[in-house]
Q: What sequence folds into this?
């Protein structure tokens, strides 16, 4: 059953991918949905056995690589962390598969799409159940590849291709760091197997290595390198630029990959490597700082965007920042908890955004929507549920996980922890603002779309609404339902050995024991409500205010609208120079030197020589005889001269 | 009687062939009507018997040292007999089709073959010359066989005049060698050469001998006749030219240079390097500008001779092995290709332009596939036998320290790949032209057989390489 949960999606992907044209659209959908659905069905008993009954297990499949002392297995490691991830991934993925059947019904390569989705699910499951870093990297690259394929799914659209390439390249930067991290782990521990690494980690707490001429604390270097990988995959600041562009992919993809699962791989990695990170306080501080800063950055940008999917994308980026803050203050459990709740409500938000786009005849600009809540009440309802969840209003899911993170940040007591606390509070305000802004602009006010579009506004088919409903249920109850196990009293029993937190770092414990005054305790909720009010004021009461504000601070507005100019900076710094370098190699190096003196030159010379040789072949007998005589004369002369 | 039989036993295959050829002439005369087909099959049977006799013959030196039989000569004779046998079938089917069949046709092929067998086994410059002339005279007649065709007669005349010149050079060289070496027997010459540093006169004599032989194998700069004769002569006869005499000439080259003049290797090596490089280069470059496929094949064979001569340059057992492997593969490549060229007929008329092949893949997929395989093989691209041929030659060169020569060979084969692959491009990617007539059964079988053989040899080369190895060893022992 453990194996089935991982490999059924692969089977579905295989059938739909290779025989999709043969068996048709409908069968491909059924096969893939069935594969993922069965995997999800397996994952729940697995979760109960492994996590709730504290019974971790490892399934050995076969040896992957074996060379000298290096050994990597194919094995499925089932502990609480994997079980949580497997359950989240398969359940959300199943719902998205079903949703995609409806959403993509007008597309002409549905088998391919469904196969990609299933393949992605498989790769993600490989990632989370990995028993060693190499297998994890296999899954890591697998999800990266499928993400590339899915962003560029509509490969006839140039912007989709560009976004796909961008995602791939930016991820490669992160992957390079991750690879270096794996090398470092192998260098220090002489193994890539988790059990071996984790057992040996305390003993290596004081060792040092030289990296690029810098003599430094070994685990700090390793953890920082691993975190670079996590930054790439989880779209943290500096490596975040690909995520908003990735919205070029079909909406189910955005929901599955760029919100619920793949982007959380970085968080998972940090949590998985917690036994290492625990001995690298500097790395943890960096994780906290970067997470908090990303959360703030993405939230500010999210406030001024107008594309419905981009707003949610920045929101994802921001929420990932939260998760890293949690990991950074050693509240990994809180991070994973938020990961899980976020998967549900963010998938919900994305899919309902997809439903809105569907309803508005593929319009994505929220300025051209408005006044449609009566026309699509179900979509409006579930999207509001998602928004309540993300803004952290009790008793919805987001409240529990987000509150835990903010409290842990405060309880950690370190300087960077305090910074993170201030930031996360601020971000909670902004999150609430932009989320409600999205709701208000999209659903309320006067219709801003043309008549034609408005006439066609319609509720999505049942095959899309049912997944939305189920996700909404999850968005409401997951948080409250699992609070006890993930971060409450039952957490030690629940997590077992899966996550390691040193006692002095245990900020969740401290958050539970320390008591703050009423104000501090309820501050997240207060700012969230403030944000709601602010959005209500701006976009329902006084719709003239946002414009005035923007006019008042045009520089800040432009700065935010252009996403802090990261794209422009990178473009100027890397992309253009890379192109320039490429052009030099191409024009001067390749065409100018290699081609000119190589293939082209030789081809021209031989062609000319061939023509010349042809004229020698005159057809006259005496020419031929003459050639023979000359030939022999030359050879004899050579001999006579050479001999003396 | 038994004494006589014992005496001729070493040359039994040749004697048998000669008797059979004369019997066939008589058969032809006594059967009043034209009976070329029958004679061809009889000739083939005679070749098969002769082949059997060759295989059974034991190593021996006979006729007062004029004639030698060993593993090497047997290998070479088998190759020639196979080449002659296969092409005489092609020749007959062509002659029947063109209604030019005459009884002498298979007999001429037989006499040419006898000449080749004689010269391969020759152990004396005189007996070498006799064999060579028997071969050459038959070939001159064959070249001009289609005597009502202007181009064929022109080809015959050119071949004859230049061949006479080459024979003259060879004879002149032989007389110089005799003058400075004191003998014409190979064994005696070998002793003489071993005795001390070779005199200049002997060296010049050797150069002339080399020139004469180079003409026979059409190595540059003694190759000028080749394109004209290849183009002018009837296609299957060109096929015969490109196969049997080439094999005979190269084997003879090997025997003469490593036998009597083995100790002069430092001197003749330079000459052979010179003509080898010229041949490879000329064959590769000049072919680029050809429009007639038979002329293209002429330059192709010039190039192939260049590669094969690398094996001679190396001058050791490995080089000889490489050359022998090369010749065997070359034999089947050429027979297959000429079978295709013979089948290039539109409404009963032969066409020879490369552009006539355009789009053949659509009209004749099998024939196109075979020709494509053969061309890839000629270009030396794995997984086809042609790759192995070049591989063994180049390896031998590299092992003997001639890395640069191997590099030159590689470059030449890159250039030659251009025109081989251009044929494939024309067949597969150009707009289809007029479809060819369906190839006759014999040519079809032959081409497919040769095409398949290219793959088979590549997959299972060991027995072939072993026999070539044995032949090469026999050469250096005897």
A:
């Amino acid at each position: 059953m453990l194996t089935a949960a991982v490999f059924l999606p692969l089977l579905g992907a295989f059938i739909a991918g290779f025989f999709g044209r043969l068996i048709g659209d409908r069968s491909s959908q059924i096969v893939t949905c069935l594969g993922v659905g069965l995997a999800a069905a397996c994952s729940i008993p697995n979760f109960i056995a492994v996590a709730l009954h504290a019974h971790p297990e490892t399934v050995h499949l076969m040896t992957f690589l074996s060379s000298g002392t290096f050994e990597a297995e194919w094995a499925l490691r089932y502990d609480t962390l994997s079980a949580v991830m497997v359950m989240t991934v398969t359940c959300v993925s199943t719902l998205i598969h079903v949703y995609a059947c409806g959403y993509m019904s007008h597309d002409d390569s549905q088998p391919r799409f469904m196969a990609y989705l299933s393949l992605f699910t498989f790769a993600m499951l490989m990632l989370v159940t990995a028993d060693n870093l190499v297998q994890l990297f296999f899954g890591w690259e697998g999800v990266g590849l499928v993400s590339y394929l899915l962003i560029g799914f509509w490969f006839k659209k140039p912007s989709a291709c560009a976004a796909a390439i961008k995602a791939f390249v930016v991820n490669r930067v992160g992957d390079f760091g991750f690879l270096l991290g794996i090398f470092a782990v192998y260098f220090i521990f002489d193994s890539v197997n988790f059990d071996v690494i984790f057992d040996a980690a305390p003993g290596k707490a004081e060792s040092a290595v030289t990296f690029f001429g810098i003599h430094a604390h070994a685990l700090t270097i390793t953890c920082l390198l691993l975190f670079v990988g996590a930054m790439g995959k989880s779209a943290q600041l500096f490596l975040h630029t690909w995520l908003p562009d990735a919205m070029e992919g079909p909406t189910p993809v955005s929901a599955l990959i760029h919100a619920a699962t793949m982007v959380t791989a970085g968080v998972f990695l940090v949590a998985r490597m917690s036994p290492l990170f625990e001995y690298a306080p500097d790395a943890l501080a960096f994780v906290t700082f970067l997470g908090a800063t990303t959360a703030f950055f993405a939230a500010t940008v999210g406030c001024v965007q107008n594309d419905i999917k981009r707003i949610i994308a920045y929101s994802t980026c921001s929420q990932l920042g939260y998760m890293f803050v949690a990991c950074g203050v050693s509240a990994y459990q809180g991070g994973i908890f938020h990961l899980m709740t976020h998967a549900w409500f963010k998938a919900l938000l994305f899919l309902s955004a997809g439903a809105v786009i569907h309803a508005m005849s593929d319009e994505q600009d929220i300025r051209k929507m408005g006044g449609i809540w009566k026309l699509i009440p179900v979509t409006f309802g579930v999207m509001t549920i998602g928004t309540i969840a993300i803004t952290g209003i009790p008793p919805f899911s987001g409240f529990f996980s987000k509150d835990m993170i903010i409290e842990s940040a405060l309880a950690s007591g370190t300087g960077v922890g305090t910074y993170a606390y201030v930031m996360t509070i601020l971000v909670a305000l902004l999150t609430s603002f932009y989320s409600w802004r999205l709701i208000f602009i999209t659903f309320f006010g006067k219709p801003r779309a043309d008549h034609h579009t408005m006439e066609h506004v319609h509720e999505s088919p049942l095959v899309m609404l049912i997944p939305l409903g189920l996700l909404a249920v999850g968005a409401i109850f997951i948080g409250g339902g699992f609070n006890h196990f993930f971060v409450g009293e039952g957490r030690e029993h629940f997590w077992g050995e899966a996550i390691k937190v040193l006692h002095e770092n245990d900020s969740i414990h401290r958050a539970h024991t320390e008591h703050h005054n009423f104000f501090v305790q309820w501050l997240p909720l207060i700012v969230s409500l403030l944000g709601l009010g602010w959005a209500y004021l701006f976009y329902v009461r006084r719709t003239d205010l946002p414009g005035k504000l923007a006019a008042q601070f045009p520089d800040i507005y432009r700065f935010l609208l252009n996403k802090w100019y990261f794209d422009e900076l990178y473009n100027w710094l890397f992309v253009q120079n890379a192109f320039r370098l490429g052009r030099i190699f191409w024009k001067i190096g390749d065409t100018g030197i290699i081609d000119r003196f190589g293939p082209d030159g030789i081809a021209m010379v031989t062609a000319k020589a061939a023509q010349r040789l042809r004229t020698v072949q005159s057809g006259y007998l005496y020419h031929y005889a003459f050639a023979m005589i000359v030939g022999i004369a030359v050879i004899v002369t050579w001999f006579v001269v050479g001999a003396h | 009687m038994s004494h006589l039989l014992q005496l001729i036993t070493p040359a039994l295959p040749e004697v048998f062939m000669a008797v059979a050829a004369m019997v066939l002439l008589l058969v032809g005369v006594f059967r009043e009507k034209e009976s070329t087909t029958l004679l061809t099959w009889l000739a083939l049977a005679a070749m098969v018997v002769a082949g059997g006799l060759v295989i059974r013959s034991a190593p021996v030196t006979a006729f007062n040292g004029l004639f030698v039989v060993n593993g090497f000569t047997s290998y070479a004779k088998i190759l020639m007999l196979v080449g002659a046998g296969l092409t005489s079938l092609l020749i007959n089917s062509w002659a029947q089709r063109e209604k030019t069949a005459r009884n002498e046709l298979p007999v001429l092929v037989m006499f040419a073959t006898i000449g080749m067998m004689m010269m391969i086994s020759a152990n004396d410059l005189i007996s070498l010359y006799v064999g060579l002339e028997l071969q050459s005279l038959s070939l001159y007649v064959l070249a001009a066989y289609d005597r009502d065709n202007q181009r064929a007669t022109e080809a015959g005349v050119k071949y004859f005049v230049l061949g006479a010149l080459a024979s003259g050079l060879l004879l002149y060289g032989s007389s110089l060698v005799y003058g400075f070496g004191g003998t014409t027997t190979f064994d005696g010459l070998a002793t003489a050469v071993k005795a001390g540093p070779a005199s200049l006169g002997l060296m010049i004599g050797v150069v002339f001998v080399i020139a004469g032989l180079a003409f026979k194998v059409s190595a540059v700069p003694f190759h000028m006749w080749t394109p004209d004769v290849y183009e002018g002569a009837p296609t299957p006869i060109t096929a015969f030219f490109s196969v049997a005499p080439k094999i005979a000439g190269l084997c003879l080259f090997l025997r003469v240079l490593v036998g009597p003049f083995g100790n002069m290797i430092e001197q003749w090596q330079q000459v052979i390097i010179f003509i080898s490089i010229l041949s490879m280069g000329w064959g590769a470059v000049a072919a680029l500008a050809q429009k007639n496929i038979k002329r293209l094949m002429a330059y192709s064979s010039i190039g192939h001779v260049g590669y094969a001569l690398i094996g001679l340059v190396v001058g050791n057992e490995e080089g000889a092995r490489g050359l022998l492997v090369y010749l065997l593969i070359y034999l089947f490549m050429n027979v297959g290709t000429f079978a295709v060229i013979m089948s290039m007929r539109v409404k009963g008329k032969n066409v020879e332009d490369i552009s006539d092949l355009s789009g053949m893949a659509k009209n004749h997929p099998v024939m196109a596939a075979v020709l494509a395989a053969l061309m890839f093989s000629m270009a030396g691209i794995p997984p086809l036998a042609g790759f192995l041929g070049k591989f063994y030659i180049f390896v031998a060169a590299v092992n003997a320290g001639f890395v640069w020569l191997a590099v030159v060979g590689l470059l030449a084969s890159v250039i030659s790949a251009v025109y081989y692959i251009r044929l494939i491009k024309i067949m597969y990617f150009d707009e289809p032209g007029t479809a060819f007539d369906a190839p006759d059964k014999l040519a079809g079988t032959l081409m497919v057989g040769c095409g398949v053989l290219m793959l088979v040899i590549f997959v299972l080369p060991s027995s072939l390489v072993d026999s070539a190895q044995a032949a090469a060893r026999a050469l250096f022992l005897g």
In short: The first strand of chain B starts at residue 60 and ends at 62. Residues 16-477 of chain B form one domain. The interface with chain A takes residues 157-158, 161-162, 165-166, 169, 200, 203-204, 207-208, 210-211, 215, 220-222, 224-225, 227-228, 267, 270-271, 274, 282, 284-290, 415, 418 of chain B (CB under 8 Å). The CA atoms of residues 181 and 192 of chain B lie 6 Å apart.
